[in-house]
């Protein structure tokens, strides 16, 4: 595949997504308004042009044929016919399949000819049917352009303007022009609005003084006028360079510290402090480029919900909010699968069939709400459904059958702990296995994926009322707040989000059983296992006795452990670097950072540390 | 067509790597951050131009026995396939030689103690044998 072809794949993904965005509500209401028609026409026209340009000729041909229908609709030559929206959804599905195959060179030409013939036949049928309603034509609304591939659209100022324009048109559909917050028409945002909405020269509604701008932008057929696409690698490179600046700055500062002349020393240090502030601003600016709105994830949801609801014979209403909440692009990649899984679960297991819902006094259509918000430097995503809730007793029963827990243990669990059994591997409350979810490889994977992003998953459920799953994520993967801990001559960074408390233990709180080779911390009412860092990492410690060092209570998923280290130091923000780029994953290590003196310190991964400890215990037992 | 190789020694034996793969030559400093539970020849990681780079001591991989780390010890940073940066520890840098790969003799699985996959061949330079290392295999993810 050529570079242009892979670029097109990214663009096509966005185009398909905005197509579905338009079509899914249209399918539900079985109608298409003029705006949607104009937008769909623009999408097909762009796909046709761009795919032809990069030699995906079959896709181009298909899009061309389908475009005919839309151009008739747009020009009012035919009216909307029942089933048209549904047909267009199916056609977009076909186009995606064609593109998939064509890009991998596996498109079967006979198969393609059948597909296009079937589509053309239906188009002809639609065109032959007598018109029911005339199709009105008016100015189209701007449509958000989102990127779901490895690229980010940026230029925040322009995006902000675009969003402002979009917001106002959302608020009041009667406005033909975007109106800024104070109610004034802003020429710049108008220009962008026009450029965004008129991706094609044929969709020009009313001539205004900005005709010139429209011509110059619209004729190129590009929908992302005010932004450019940037490879994520380039942004990471920028971030790397900024990281280098931070280190150089620290080295200079250390040098300045050694100067004998106090006057020079003070001036130099003052200026270095200023330099450091500039570097921080630069770092923040580069980070902001990596941030993308939640919209990008939401864009895929309606289609998934629709397909699944159709398949399972359920009715689902999807509501989402927090579209403009920004999230690290890297995070989106990792968040996508877990979120899709949770939503599939909600539709498959949570929501009841329409009849059952009506019998229990609920609306026939189940409601799934996805919200995103930024609070206290974290991103909180909630997924609610108003379905039947999780049957806690069934989860417990299943866990006992699977030997995850014993009868005795089950009796002692709190309701919350019982519910959290869902996160154990191999647990599914559905009797039979469906191909959508319920294979029992669900929530445990969701949790470990979220944990890889440095986040947590929380679950709450009320019988007959529904289930809520909350995902709490750090703002970014690239920077984390860490606590310095020391073992022997090594310094490690412990993510602050995992630290519960630290203490200097007296001998009375250190307990053990059996041969006493492993220790337990008795902290208030709880027994917390102690993991001795120097043993786990095979380092010569400064203190071998737990009473001489420090215990840090760490949260890892649902578990807690007390990490035994020599001492701990200051908290600091660190730029996270991956070990995997040049090496591979190391269990117990989440990443690395470059310190002020240019050497590397490792960032600890609490879940990995637990796994590593378990592995070590198993190895010891096997040896005995 | 002649290719340029950097020739260096490890435990008194001559080895060569393609010069185009060499990114940087540094002196060994005792500032390597050790990684938990890795084979002994993975010494740890260093910061190289902002990249976290593993340091591999092939002397420990190829032969047992003690290795010297002093002010003369050298670290060679190599860029492998897939843009991976990996550094190796060597005793001395000898020189850069031009080698016609037609002259390189393929190794038999007897005689050479190294896995034949690790070698691009053996060549005669002056009165010595230089083992040309295939670092993409030798330092591949599965090997280190």
Tell me about this structure.
The complex is a heterodimer of chains A (624) and B (144). Chain A is of the alpha+beta class. Chain A contains 20 helices and 20 strands. In chain A, the strands form 5 sheets. Chain A has a 6-stranded mixed β-sheet with strand order 12-16-17-15-14-13. A 5-stranded mixed β-sheet of chain A has the order 4-6-7-9-8. Chain A has a 5-stranded mixed β-sheet with strand order 18-10-11-20-19. In chain A, strand 6 and strand 7 (378-385) form a beta hairpin. In chain A, helix 2 (34-53) runs antiparallel to helix 3 (57-74). Chain A is globular. Mean pLDDT of chain A is 78; it is low at 133-156, 158-224 and 429-441. Chain B is mainly beta and 144 residues long. Chain B is 6% helix and 47% strand. Chain B has a 5-stranded mixed β-sheet, with no helix packed on it. Chain B has a 5-stranded mixed β-sheet with strand order 3-6-7-5-4, with no helix packed on it. Chain B is globular, with a radius of gyration of 15 Å. Chain B starts with a strand and ends in a 6-residue tail after the last helix. At the A-B interface, helix 9, strand 19 and strand 20 of A face strand 4 and strand 5 of B.
């Amino acid at each position: 595949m050529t570079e242009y072809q892979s670029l097109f794949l990214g663009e096509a993904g966005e185009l398909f997504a905005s197509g579905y965005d338009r079509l899914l509500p249209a399918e539900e209401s079985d109608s298409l308004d003029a705006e949607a028609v104009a937008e769909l026409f623009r999408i097909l026209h762009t796909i046709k042009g761009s795919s032809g340009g990069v030699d995906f000729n079959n896709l181009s041909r298909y899009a061309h044929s389908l475009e005919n229908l839309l151009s008739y609709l747009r020009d009012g030559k035919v009216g909307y016919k029942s089933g048209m929206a549904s047909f267009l959804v199916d056609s977009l599905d076909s186009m995606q399949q064609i593109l998939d195959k064509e890009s991998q060179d596996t498109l079967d030409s006979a198969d393609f000819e059948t597909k296009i013939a079937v589509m053309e036949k239906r188009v002809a049928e639609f065109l032959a049917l007598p018109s029911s309603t005339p199709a009105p034509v008016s100015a189209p609304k701007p449509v958000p352009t989102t990127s779901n591939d490895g690229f980010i659209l940026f230029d925040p100022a322009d995006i902000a303007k675009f969003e402002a324009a979009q917001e106002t048109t959302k608020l009041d559909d009667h406005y033909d022009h975007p109106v800024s917050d104070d109610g004034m028409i802003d020429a710049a945002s108008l220009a962008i609005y026009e450029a965004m909405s008129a991706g094609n020269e044929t969709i020009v509604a009313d001539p205004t003084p900005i005709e010139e701008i429209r011509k110059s932008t619209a004729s190129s057929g590009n929908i992302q006028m005010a932004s450019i696409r940037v490879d994520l690698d380039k942004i990471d490179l920028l971030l790397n360079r900024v990281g280098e600046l931070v280190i150089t700055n620290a080295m200079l500062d250390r040098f300045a510290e050694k100067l004998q002349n106090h006057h020079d020393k003070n001036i130099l240090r003052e200026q270095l402090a200023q330099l450091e502030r500039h570097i921080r601003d630069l770092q923040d600016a580069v980070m902001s480029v990596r941030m993308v709105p939640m919209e990008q994830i939401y864009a895929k949801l309606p289609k998934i919900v629709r397909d699944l609801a159709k398949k399972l014979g359920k009715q689902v209403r999807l509501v989402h909010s927090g579209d403009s909440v920004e999230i690290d692009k890297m995070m989106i990649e990792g968040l996508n699968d877990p979120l899709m899984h949770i939503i599939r679960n909600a539709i498959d297991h949570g929501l009841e069939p329409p009849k059952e819902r009506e019998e229990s006094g609920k609306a026939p259509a189940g409601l799934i709400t996805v919200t995103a918000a930024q609070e206290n430097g974290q991103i909180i995503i909630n997924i609610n459904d108003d379905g039947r809730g999780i049957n806690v007793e069934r989860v417990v029963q299943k866990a006992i059958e699977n030997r995850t827990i014993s009868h005795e243990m089950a009796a002692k669990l709190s309701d919350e702990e019982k519910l959290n059994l869902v996160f154990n591997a191999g647990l599914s409350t559905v009797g039979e296995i469906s191909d959508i979810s319920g294979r029992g490889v669900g929530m445990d994977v969701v949790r470990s994926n979220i944990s890889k992003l440095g986040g947590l998953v929380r679950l709450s459920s009320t019988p007959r009322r529904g289930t809520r799953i909350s995902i709490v994520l750090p703002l970014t993967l690239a920077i984390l707040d860490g606590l310095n801990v020391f073992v022997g001559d090594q310094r490690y960074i412990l993510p602050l989000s995992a630290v519960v408390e630290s203490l200097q233990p007296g001998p009375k709180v250190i307990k053990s059983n059996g041969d006493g080779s492993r220790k337990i911390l008795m902290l208030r009412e709880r027994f917390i296992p102690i993991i001795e860092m120097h043993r786990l990492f095979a380092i010569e410690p400064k203190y071998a006795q737990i009473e001489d060092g420090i215990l840090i209570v760490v949260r890892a998923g649902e578990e807690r452990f007390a990490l035994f280290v020599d001492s701990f130091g200051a908290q600091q923000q660190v730029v996270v670097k991956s070990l995997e780029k040049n090496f591979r994953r190391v269990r117990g290590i989440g990443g690395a950072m470059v310190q002020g003196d240019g050497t590397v310190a490792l960032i600890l991964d609490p879940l990995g540390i637990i796994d590593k400890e378990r592995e070590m215990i198993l190895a010891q037992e096997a040896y005995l | 067509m002649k290719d340029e190789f950097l020739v260096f020694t490890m435990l008194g034996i001559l080895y060569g790597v393609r010069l185009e793969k060499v990114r940087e030559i540094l002196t060994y400093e005792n500032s390597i951050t050790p990684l938990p539970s890795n084979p002994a020849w993975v010494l740890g990681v260093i910061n190289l131009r902002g990249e976290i780079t593993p340091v591999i001591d092939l002397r420990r991989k190829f032969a047992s026995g003690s290795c010297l780390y002093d002010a003369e010890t050298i670290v060679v940073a190599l860029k492998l396939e897939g843009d991976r940066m990996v550094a190796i520890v060597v005793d001395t840098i000898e020189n850069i030689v031009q080698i016609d790969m037609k002259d390189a003799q393929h190794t038999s699985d007897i005689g050479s103690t190294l896995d034949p996959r690790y070698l691009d061949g053996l060549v005669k330079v002056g009165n010595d044998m230089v083992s040309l290392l295939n670092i993409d295999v030798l330092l591949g993810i599965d090997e280190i």
